[in-house]
Structure formats: structure tokens, C-alpha cells
């Protein structure tokens, strides 16, 4: 009933242009030469060198660069640079600082490409800085439609590809900007913000596509991941996180609840270039209480494997059935390969809000369960505080029927000591009273260091760092 | 993640799924409240029915409303910028400014929070304050909906009321800005 507003507008403010740079460089030459140089510089935008971002660079970024949300497609969030380390970090001093000019939660990592740094702010502002000097190169400001509900106005950063950068917006659009100037190249809606959809995530750029997911799990959306052509913004594929009628898993939703069942995707996915598969975490189902949508509610609170070329669902693992606790598992899994039982396991590792560290296996055929490890004391129920079985469940999608899969889930539930529904409806929490030991982490995912000895990431994994401490509480409708 | 109360958003979104092309609302449905417009319920069993003075209990939680053209009976619900909240405040708790806009203690404000545009749906009964569930901004409806606490940058726009044949009606256009603050425009304009 509430139609999309046509009142929006955008503006780009270029704070550093070819003009000023050319003028400074030409101070010693004659007026004629100055004018000629200015024109040359203006015609030959960019005023500043910018390294085009290729697929090859995204697969293997130079150590000095941070080209995507988690730096590498495996989502490690790890820099191989070692000039700043544990011994000298206390000696760091500020070199420059800058005010973004806005409040609210700033959740964008600085994305750095050969000396140019991009950050986003709430209300979808993009700032481009000279990373060395802090000089503001340009600023993009977006005027939100006045009738939008900006309940969560944050943004988590940009994606880079070619000479453009990409941002997902609070009004459910993706905007492509010229990375040199901040000028808008294209601006495409992926959904209607009046339907509860909005976006906060940094897009995932791969194989000429810009992939984004949508937020709004509390607003009656049906979540999806959509891929747009990086050059034109046209839609290449769109895959819902909740199966529609006739699709496997649809039976896990009663009545029309699938239409508004949530399953948002609001954190950038991982990507395995060898398999051609992207991995996305999905959020909580809606409405919040599970008894209003009895069933497994596929594929909420899950990890999905989507084909980068087609968007086809190639596998999944659901961490929580019929989630009532807001245990949305939107963080994409880390791709970690380990030696286990005499073979290399291509892993998906995910520290979950339920207090478990999950270790799954990724393959062309899908996703399968390997192990999970409890990282905190759970108080949800007696059952869930038991030590989980070594091999508890499986979630291969392969060719099995939806019914068979459903049975597999339930038998897995019995083995894992999954709490009964009555218990799961009660409020609960996990507390970090039990910190996982390094030895236990090793037992769950053995020989990580050995498996990665050839990689430059070795330093991180060989430390056998304990899993992060988990603290989740179960607020409901607060 | 976001635990904001978005019941209104969801309820209205269900009426227009995003995968169906949304029809543009007619101009009179998006026009701001006009003097003489009648206030009608926005939600519930009495949706689109006029709100009578007797329907608004003093000190009770706010009623969500839209203005309606009494001649054409067209409800101006084509934009949520016309979404209103109506409460009744004891005469002794009304500031002079607000008393001039009230009709028998009943006051109306824009229902769009000035912080990030959420629906102001909560009611703090002991303090008689309007509250936004998204970021806890509170407004005092007895005193021009000034900001009592929270991140909201300015008060809710006020809509002067009068009583016509026992029902609530608009006496004058909005006083103040409807909508929320955006970066680069400190005044919100």
C-alpha cells in the first residue's frame, strides 16, 4: 500500500579534483602551459593513479592491500604484514585522524587499494582518503527517501572490482561509484525498502558479479542473495534463502509463513574460487517465536553454498532448527583446510551464537558435518550442556528428497541431544565460563598448521589460538 | 539482530509484497494532512474508521492514525510521513504551546521518529512519554513532543487538532519537520 517514494536524490561532492592538482604542479610554467596542462589533467581523469582490481588480485591480494571486507575470499581477516606486531604495537602513535561527519555505528573496515582508502559510514556515505596523508579525496553522500525507516542505519563497507567500488544501501539498492572520483556509474534497486528490506553488508565481488544479501529478518522479509552484473547493475541471479512452493525445504514452513520468514543475509559471504562456490550465513527466521512457524524453517540460521555463476543452491547446513533465540548465523564461515584422518579436509569453520564452534566440510557436492566443539557453558537446557556426539548430523543436500533430509535432521537431533521444543522456547543464554583450551581446539580441528604450512597465513593458525569466547543471550522482542 | 518493534511496518508490508508491482498512490493519498481532515485508525479492527473524542482515554497508549479527506473519504495513507500518533493528556500536564494545539486534551504528532525514521510505537505510562523502540528516544507529548531522552535530534512535528461532530479533525498543518535527520543536513532539511 505504501508505494516507493520518488523523493530521493543523491549528490556527490568531489573534494579533490584534477584542477587543484594541476594548478599546483604547473606553478612554475607560463599561463598558456598552465591552461593546457589543466585541460589535459581534466580530460585525463583520474587525477590520481588507481590500480584496477582484477579477479586475480582479489584471489591473491598483495600483502599491502585490503581489497575486500575480510581481505581474502576465505574470510580470514588476516594481514600477512609483520612490521607492526605484538612487540611494537604499543609504540603506535596517531598519524592522522578525520571526522566522518556523522554519528551512529561505524562498522566499515577500511578497504585499501594501493594507497587509496575507502570507508563507509551510516546513511551510506562513502569517504575516499589518501591512506598515507589522510587527505580526503572525495565524498559521496546519499539522500535517503524521507519515508524510509532507518532503524539500523549502519553500513559495513564497499567492494572493489575494476575501477569501480560498490555499496549496498539502506534503501535496498546497490550503487556503483567510480573509484577515482566518487561519481555514480549505476544505481539499481534490488528490492522495495517499504517491504521491510534494507542492506548493510559490504558486497562480495567475484567473476564480474556483485553479490549482496538483504537485511530485514524482523520486518517480514523473505531473505535472498542477488548477483548483479558489475558493469551494468543488471540482475544475473537471485536465490531466496527460503524455498518457494515446489522447492525442497518448502515443507519446513507452515502455510504462508515462508513469504515473511526472514532468513536475512547481512554479512559478506566467503568464496572458494576452485569450487566456484560462495558461502553465506543466513539469519534468524521470523516472527521471533518458533511456535508461530512450526517446522525446521529452512534455510534460516544456516550456511548456504551458492554457485557463483548461477546462484544455484549446492548445499547447506542448518545450525539451528526453528530458531527462537535470534541465533542468526549470518557470519560467513572461514575456509580452512586441515589434515584429518589421513586426508585433507576442505573445511568451513564457524563460531556460532549457540556457543559451538562448527567444523563442516565443503565440496562440489555440498556441505557436510565434521565436528563441533562447545566453547561456552550453555544454560538453555540440560540436554544441550552435554558434550555433543563426535559425529552428530549431516546436511548434504545432494539428491536426497526433502523428506529424507528432514528425517536426517531429526535423527541428528536425537544424537546431538538437541533440546526439546519446550525447552527451546524458554529464554536461555550461553556464557563464556568455559574457555576452550588450545588443546581442545586442536582436537576439533587437528593439524591446521600442517595443512597450511605452504601458505603465508601459517603464523596465525600455528598459534592454535583458542576460539573466541562466546556470549549470547536470548532477548525476545525487546 | 535488530529488535525494534516493527509491527506496523510488517503489518502494512504484508499488504503489499515486494515481489508484486506496487501501484503508485494517488496524489491525494500522499498529500500532507489538510485542515478539516478527519483522523482515522491506521490499524486494527476499526481501520479507516474515524476516531471519536470519546475513544481516546486520558493517559492511555497512543493510537496510530492517518488523516482522511472527509469529502472523498480518501485516507491519506500513501506515505508513512502522514502516520500520526494520538494521545490524551491531562490538562494540568499540557504546556501552553501544546494546549493551543490540543482538542480537549487530545494531541497529535507525526509518528516518524526524528532520529532514524522508525515508528514511535511505545508508551511509557508512568511518565506519559512517547517512546521509539529502535533507539529509546523519548518524547513528552504534553510539551510539544520535546525530546526527553535518547538520540532524537528534535521534537516530533505537531498536528493541531479540533473536534468536529465529536470526532478528531485537523485544525492546521504540521508544525515542524516531519521525518528524520540525515548527514550533511544538520537541520534535517
* CATH architecture name of chain B: 3-layer Sandwich
**Rg of chain A, alpha carbons:** 24 Å
Do you know the CATH topology of chain A?
Methanol Dehydrogenase, Chain A
Count of separate DSSP helical elements of chain A: 8
Class computed from helices, strands and strand pairing of chain A: alpha+beta
The biggest sheet of chain B amounts to: 5 strands, antiparallel
**Assembly category:** heterodimer
Order of helices and strands of chain B: HHEEEHEEEEEEEE
Mean pLDDT figure of chain A: 77
The CATH homology group name of chain B: Rieske [2Fe-2S] iron-sulphur domain
N-to-C span of chain A: 27 Å
**Largest contact between chains:** A-B, 47 and 37 residues
Major beta-sheet overview of chain A: 5 strands, antiparallel
What can you see in these coordinates?
The complex is a heterodimer of chains A (478) and B (189). Chain A has 478 residues and is α+β, with helices and mostly antiparallel strands. Chain A has 8 helices and 24 strands. A 5-stranded antiparallel beta sheet of chain A has the order 1-5-4-3-2, with no helix packed on it. Chain A has a 4-stranded antiparallel beta sheet with strand order 6-7-8-9, with no helix packed on it. Residues 1-46, 381-427, 429-436 and 444-478 of chain A have low confidence and may be disordered. Chain B has 189 residues and is mostly beta strands. Chain B has one domain: Rieske [2Fe-2S] iron-sulphur domain (Rieske Iron-sulfur Protein), CATH 2.102.10.10. Helix content of chain B is 8%, strand content 23%. In chain B, the strands form 3 sheets. Chain B has a 5-stranded antiparallel beta sheet with strand order 1-2-3-4-9, with no helix packed on it. Mean pLDDT of chain B is 88; it is low at 1-7 and 9-20. The chains are: A alpha+beta (478), B mainly beta (189). Chain A binds chain B through residues 1-5, 101-104, 121-123, 125, 141, 143-144, 146-153, 191-192, 194-197, 215, 217-221, 259-260, 266, 283-284, 326, 328, 330, 475, 477-478, and chain B through 1-6, 9-10, 12-18, 22-25, 77-81, 112, 116-119, 134, 151, 178-180, 182-184.
